[in-house]
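Hi there, hope your week has been kind to you so far. Thanks so much in advance, here it is:
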Amino acid sequence: MDNNTELNAVGVDIGGSSIKVGIVTATGHILHQRILPLKRATAPVLIQEVLTAIASLRRIAPISAIGIASTGVTDAERGVILQSTSIRDYDGTNWKSILASKYDLPVIVENDVKAAAWGEFKEAYLPPDSTVALIAVGTGIGCGIIIDGKIWRGSGFAAGEIGHITINAHGPQYHGNVGCLEYYASAPSIVMYVRERIQAHSKSIIPALVNGDLNRLSLPLIKQAEDMGDQLAKEAFREAGEMLGIGIVNVVHLLNPDIVILGGGVVEASTTYVDAAISLAMRRILSSARNGLTIKRARLGNQAALVGAGLLAVEHCRILSLQIGARVD
């Protein structure tokens, strides 16, 4: 990574249920981190939590810039959240304006999956002309894309919203689309699959784990059941993983990347899920696109967006310093 070690940034990773805030060095190390649960995912609560956390971190170490990685479609140029489905009243939030009113520091704002892709790209020391696709699977599914060492955002900043691609033209409606990848391969889809199978009287230890209350079903609980040898849990992860594999095939045939990186809570939860996705993808990808292709898990895990936001902020700070130096010269 970068050798400019005197610069530190505050990195902020905003999800629908929690906020990660940390001090990130120019080499991508996290000096200090806090994880804040979002019990009420509304914009005013979120903004206050972030401002309080940044103020606290600034007392720990010198900070040169702030990087925000946020869920939702994000206008990286203006620092505005264009569209979010997980945080109420969040659309239109202008992080650059909010933070500029509090701190005299450079600010960058990026979509969380794109920031995660940047973090993994820098962590892996890949050649600058690499094409990288990071697919993050959690409550939703997104793809961060790096082409020739730059984040590809698209004309409306919505590039990589692969959770909304249709993989079943006759599937159910889901989040504004029909038969989309998120419906079949995300964390909610795994929970839904298990619930429906149990209601259809499939054999499983899961009802005992939730004392018969299927409203208590969750991804960690299904993972617990899989670790205990439950076949229904294993089947649920495998089925969803194969659906993700279809999504990977589509991404590879569109971008022909050097590497596909898999991350997010579902990927971290289950090897069965990951193995099924990679196995199906490698069987179906055209040989010309498969040659030289690597598909692997993320190295930074759930820290990728935080690290990526920090590194983007440090880079932005350095560019501004060079521009100021050039004007002085």
Observations:
- The chain has two domains: 8-112+302-328, 125-298.
- The two ends are 28 Å apart (CA to CA).
- The CA atoms of residues 25 and 72 lie 25 Å apart.
- Residues 8-112+302-328 form a domain with the Nucleotidyltransferase; domain 5 fold (CATH 3.30.420.40).
